[in-house]
Design brief:
The chain is mostly helical. The protein has one domain (2-151). The chain contains four helices and no strands. It has helices at residues 2-30, 39-74, 82-114, 118-148. Helix 1 crosses helix 4. The longest helix is centred in the middle third of the chain and has 36 residues, at 39-74. Bound molecules: protoporphyrin IX containing FE. The site of protoporphyrin IX containing FE (HEM) has 25 residues, from helix 1, helix 2, helix 3 and helix 4.
């Protein structure tokens, strides 16, 4: 059971953080110059519409499997080390930031693009980009904390 929980936990982190890395570091700088302006927001709309459901899966699976490991494998919050407390704290910051991204910026962006209002879509996309950048950095830090924590003194 521990192996299944840990596998689901790590796969969720991989999909979420890897997806953000691809979107921010690879796709974002590759688009300008190739696509004419109205096509850009439309592309991001399609990309995010496919990516965000996977992020929701991760946002559900990471704490579920994480707490199952804490209470099943470790025997409670009092028994886990600093690294797990840090992972949990930063994890909740990431979940809340994604909630804001989804229900505020993404909703505004999606409605604007669907209405053909590309003027309004710009600031909403900038809001998404900012939160993805923050969550990418946090996600990379949390992965390092999660994977190295057991070797901490
Ligand atoms: C409420 C949030 C979270 C909780 C309660 C939690 C809990 C845990 C626990 C208990 C472990 C096993 C530690 C061990 O036994 O050494 C673990 C491992 C790990 N977690 Fe989390 N975690 C959370 C969020 C996250 C997030 C947001 C990420 C990354 C985006 C993440 C990435 C990892 C990684 C990479 C490992 C290491 C797996 C391994 O190498 O064995 N966790 N987590």
């Amino acid at each position: 059971m521990t192996m299944i929980l840990l596998a689901l936990h790590v796969l969720s982190a991989l999909v979420w953080v890897g997806g953000m890395f691809f979107a921010y570091v690879v796709l974002r700088p590759s688009i300008p110059g190739i696509e004419p302006a109205p096509e850009r927001p439309r592309l991001w709309r399609r990309v995010f519409a496919r990516f965000f459901p996977w992020v929701w899966v991760a946002v559900f699976t990471l704490p579920t499997t994480g707490y199952a490991l804490i209470f099943g494998l470790h025997g409670g919050m009092a028994d886990v080390g600093l690294s797990v407390h840090l992972m949990q704290g930063l994890g909740w910051v990431m979940f809340l930031l994604f909630g804001h991204l989804y229900f505020a910026s993404w909703r505004r962006f999606r409605t604007s693009v669907d209405a053909g209002d590309f003027q309004a879509a710009g600031p909403a996309l900038a809001g998404i980009r900012k939160i993805v950048a923050i969550n990418l950095v946090l996600g990379l830090i949390v992965v390092i904390i999660g994977a190295t924590g057991r070797y901490w003194p």
